[in-house]
C-alpha cells in the first residue's frame, strides 16, 4: 500500500516522497464503483506545513481534475453542512473518526502533553548503576573499554531494527532536547523506550507526528523559484510496526508466506532465519521509483545481517578483535574472536558455543539474540549487549546451592515414589552489569537465558545470566518503598536485599529439582510441561518460589546457613509479592505469586492488619510453605491438570487484600521500573585518558 501510495503520488502529482514521510492514519472501507477505465476518488495529502506552491506539482491533467488547499477545520465544516461537492462521506459515521485522529496527532497543547509525558516518565526511577572495578587488572579495564565501545554500536543497530526512521527521529529529538522542558522530557522518555512507542503502555505512541523530525527535501517536487523544496515530517505509524524494520513496512504475513513457498530449502531457511532482513527490490530505488513496475511476490529478497549492518558490525568486529588480542583469559579470547568471525560471516554457531563456555572475570553477551521485536513472525533477532563483571559472592552462593541440590531433592515434601536420582544444575552466571545496549528498552530485565539456536539448546541446553546490581537497584527504588507501604511497621526492618537475592538464586536452582519427566498412572512416560500445558509455567514459577523458601529453611535447620536469615527471607519474599503481582496476573510470575500469597494468607502465615498492612506469622509460615510445596509438587508428579486448574482458580486470583495493597502503590506513585545510566563508562574513559597522558609525557 505504501509502495502504491508513493508511486501514485509521483505519477499523478509529480510529488516524490520517501517512505518516512508517510503516516498511515486511517483506512476507510468504501464501496468503490468502477466504471470501465475511470476510477474517481479524492486524495487527501495531510501536511502540517505551509502550502506547497501549486506549480511545484507536475499534474497528469487527464487523471487529476484539480488540486486545492483546504484546512482540516474548513473541510470538516463543509462535510457537516452536507456540501454536495464533498458528500457522500458520512461525517457522523466511520469517516468522521479521521478528524479525531488528525486532531489528536497534530494538536499542539504543549502544557497538557508535557504533563502527560512527565507522568509516564515518573514511572521510571533513574539510577546510576555502578559496579566494583577494583578486582580488575589494568589490562582487564582496557579490554572492558574496547568491549563497551563495541557494545555501543549494538544500540545503533537496534534503533535501526525497531523502525526504519528511528535513527533520524533520535537525531532530531537529541538536537532539540535543549529547546524547552517539554523537548527534554520527550528526549528522556524516547531514550528509555528507544522508539516513539511506550513499552509500559502496550506500545502506544507517546509522540505525535507534530513532535517528530522535519526535513527539507529539495528533490521532492519540481523546482520553483524562491521556494526551497518540500519540508516533511518523519512521520511514524501510530501502531508500532509488528515486523519492526526486519521486513518492508508494507509487507504483510500473506505476501511473505506466498514468497517463501516458492523458495528453495536453503533460501527458505535464510528467509525465516534469525540473522537476515527482508527487503523489496522496488524499494532499492526509493529516491527514483520505477513507475512502471508493480510489486509482485518475487519483489522480496533476503539480506544477511552481516551485509545490512556492515558499517556497524565491521567497526564492532575491529574493537572486539583488539580486545580479544589483549585479554589473557582463554575463554574470553575465544568468545571475542569467534564473535568477530560471526559478525563478518553471519554464522553465529561457534560464538554461541564460546559464550556457553565463557568463564572469565569479564562477562560479555553481544550480538543478535532475542526475537521479541519481530511480532509479525518472531523469526528475526535484535542486537543487544550485556557487559558485566562476575560477582564472586553470588557465584559462591550458587555453588553452595548446587552442592546441596541432591540432598534437597531427597528431602522434598512429597511422596518418596516421586523423587528422582538426578537433579539438573543449570549453568548460571551472576554478574554486576557494567553496561547494556541494544535490545533492552522500557523495563530492565533481571536475567536472561541464552542461546536461542535450537541446535545448541538440544545438545547443551542454555545458560542463565543474572544481573545482581539491576536487582539491587530495583530492590532499593521499588521494593523498599512497597515494603514501607505494605509491610507492618514492626517487620519492616526485616526486608533486606541480601535475603531477597539469596532467595532469587535459590529460586533458579529449585527449577532443577522436583518432577520434570514423569510416569503417568497408565505407566506412560511424559513431562510435566506436556501434561499441564498452558498452566505449566505459572505453576512451575510458583514451585520455584515456594520450594525455594522451603529449601532455605531446610538448609538453615541443618546449620548450613545462618539462623538470623530466616525471618528476613520470609518478610522480604512477602514484600516482593506485591511488586510481581503489580504487573498483572496474566503473566506466569504474577499468577504464581498470587497463588502463593492467597494460600499463605488463608493458612494464617500472612496476617492482614486493620491498617491494610501485612506481616508474617513466624509460627505458621513453615508449615504453610511446606503444605503448598507438597500440593504443587504432587500435582506436577502426577501430571494432574484438573487439580492444577482448581488450585489456580481458587488461589491465583486478584483478591480484595491484594487489590487494596496495589491501590496504595498507585496512590503513592511508587516507580514501576528503573532507568539506569552507567557511570563506569566515564570512569573507564578517565582511566584510559590518564594512561594515554602518561605515555605522551
Ligand atoms: Zn523462575
From TrEMBL:
GO terms for molecular function: dipeptidyl-peptidase activity; metal ion binding. Coiled coil: none annotated. The keyword Metal-binding applies. It comes from the Eukaryota. Keywords: Hydrolase, Metal-binding. InterPro entries: Peptidase_M49. One of its GO terms (cellular component) is cytoplasm. Transmembrane segments: none annotated. This is Nudix hydrolase 3.
Amino acid at each position: 500500500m505504501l509502495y502504491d501510495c508513493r508511486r501514485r503520488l509521483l505519477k499523478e502529482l509529480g510529488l516524490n516522497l520517501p517512505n518516512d514521510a508517510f503516516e498511515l492514519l486511517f483506512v476507510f472501507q468504501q464501496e468503490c464503483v468502477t466504471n470501465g477505465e475511470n476510477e474517481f476518488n479524492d486524495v487527501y495529502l495531510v501536511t502540517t506545513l505551509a502550502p506547497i506552491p501549486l506549480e511545484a506539482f507536475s499534474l497528469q491533467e487527464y487523471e487529476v481534475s484539480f488540486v486545492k488547499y483546504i484546512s482540516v477545520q474548513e473541510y470538516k465544516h463543509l462535510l457537516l453542512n452536507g456540501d454536495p461537492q464533498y458528500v457522500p462521506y458520512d461525517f457522523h459515521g466511520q469517516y468522521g473518526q479521521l478528524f479525531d485522529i488528525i486532531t489528536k496527532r497534530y494538536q499542539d497543547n504543549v502544557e497538557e502533553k508535557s504533563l502527560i509525558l512527565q507522568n509516564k516518565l515518573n514511572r521510571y526511577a533513574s539510577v546510576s548503576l555502578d559496579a566494583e572495578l577494583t578486582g580488575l587488572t589494568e589490562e582487564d579495564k582496557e579490554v572492558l573499554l574496547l568491549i563497551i565501545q563495541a557494545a555501543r554500536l549494538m544500540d545503533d543497530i537496534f534503533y535501526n531494527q525497531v523502525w526504519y526512521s528511528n535513527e533520524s527521529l533520535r537525531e532530531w529529538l537529541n538536537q532539540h532536547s535543549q529547546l524547552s522542558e517539554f523537548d527534554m522530557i520527550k528526549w528522556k522518555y524516547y531514550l528509555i523506550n528507544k522508539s516513539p512507542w511506550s513499552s509500559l503502555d502496550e506500545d502506544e505512541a507517546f509522540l505525535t507526528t507534530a513532535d517528530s523530525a522535519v526535513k527539507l527535501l529539495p528533490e521532492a517536487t519540481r523546482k520553483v523559484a524562491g521556494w526551497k523544496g518540500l519540508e516533511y515530517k518523519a512521520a511514524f505509524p501510530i501502531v508500532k510496526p509488528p515486523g519492526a524494520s526486519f521486513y518492508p513496512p508494507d509487507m504483510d504475513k500473506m505476501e511473505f508466506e506466498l514468497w517463501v513457498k516458492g523458495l528453495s530449502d536453503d533460501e527458505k531457511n535464510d528467509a525465516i532465519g534469525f540473522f537476515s532482513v527482508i527487503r523489496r527490490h522496488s524499494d532499492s530505488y526509493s529516491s527514483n521509483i520505477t513507475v512502471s513496475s508493480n510489486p509482485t511476490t518475487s519483489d522480496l529478497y533476503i539480506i544477511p545481517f552481516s551485509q545490512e549492518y556492515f558499517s556497524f558490525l565491521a567497526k564492532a568486529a575491529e574493537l572486539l578483535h583488539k580486545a580479544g588480542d589483549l585479554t589473557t583469559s582463554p575463554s574470553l579470547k575465544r568468545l571475542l574472536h569467534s564473535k568477530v568471525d560471526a559478525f563478518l560471516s553471519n554464522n553465529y554457531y561457534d560464538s554461541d558455543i564460546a559464550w556457553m563456555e565463557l568463564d572469565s572475570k569479564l562477562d560479555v553477551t553481544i550480538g543478535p539474540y532475542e526475537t521479541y521485536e519481530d511480532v509479525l513472525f518472531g523469526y528475526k533477532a535484535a542486537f543487544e549487549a550485556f557487559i558485566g563483571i562476575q560477582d564472586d559472592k553470588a557465584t559462591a552462593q550458587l555453588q553452595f546451592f548446587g552442592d546441596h541440590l541432591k540432598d534437597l531433592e531427597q528431602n522434598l515434601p512429597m511422596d518418596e515414589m516421586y523423587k528422582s536420582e538426578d537433579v539438573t544444575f543449570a549453568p548460571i552466571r551472576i554478574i554486576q552489569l557494567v553496561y547494556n545496549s541494544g535490545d533492552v528498552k522500557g523495563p530492565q530485565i533481571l536475567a536472561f537465558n541464552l542461546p536461542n539456536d535450537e541446535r545448541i539448546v538440544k545438545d547443551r541446553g542454555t545458560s542463565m545470566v543474572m544481573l545482581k546490581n539491576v536487582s539491587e537497584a530495583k530492590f532499593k527504588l521499588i521494593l523498599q518503598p512497597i515494603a514501607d507501604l505494605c509491610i507492618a511497621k514492626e517487620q519492616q526492618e526485616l526486608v533486606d536485599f541480601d535475603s531477597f537475592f539469596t532467595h532469587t538464586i535459590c529460586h533458579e536452582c529449585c527449577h532443577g529439582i522436583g518432577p520434570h519427566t514423569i510416569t503417568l498412572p497408565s505407566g506412560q512416560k511424559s513431562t510435566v510441561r506436556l501434561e499441564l500445558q498452558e498452566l505449566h509455567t505459572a505453576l512451575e514459577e510458583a514451585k520455584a518460589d515456594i520450594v525455594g523458601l522451603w529449601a532455605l529453611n531446610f538448609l538453615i535447620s541443618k546449620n548450613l546457613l545462618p539462623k538470623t536469615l530466616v525471618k528476613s527471607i520470609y518478610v522480604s519474599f512477602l514484600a516482593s509479592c506485591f511488586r510481581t503481582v503489580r504487573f498483572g496476573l496474566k503473566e506466569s510470575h504474577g499468577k504464581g505469586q498470587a497463588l502463593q500469597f492467597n494460600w499463605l494468607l488463608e493458612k494464617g502465615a500472612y496476617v492482614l492488619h486493620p491498617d491494610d498492612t501485612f506481616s508474617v506469622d513466624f509460627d505458621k509460615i513453615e508449615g504453610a510453605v511446606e503444605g503448598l510445596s507438597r500440593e504443587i509438587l504432587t500435582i506436577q508428579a502426577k501430571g494432574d491438570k484438573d487439580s492444577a486448574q482448581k488450585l489456580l482458580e481458587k488461589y491465583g486470583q486478584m483478591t480484595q487484600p491484594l487489590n487494596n495493597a496495589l491501590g496504595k502503590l498507585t496512590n503513592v506513585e511508587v516507580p514501576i521500573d528503573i532507568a539506569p545510566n552507567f557511570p563506569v563508562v566515564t570512569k573507564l574513559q578517565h582511566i584510559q585518558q590518564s594512561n594515554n597522558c602518561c605515555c605522551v609525557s
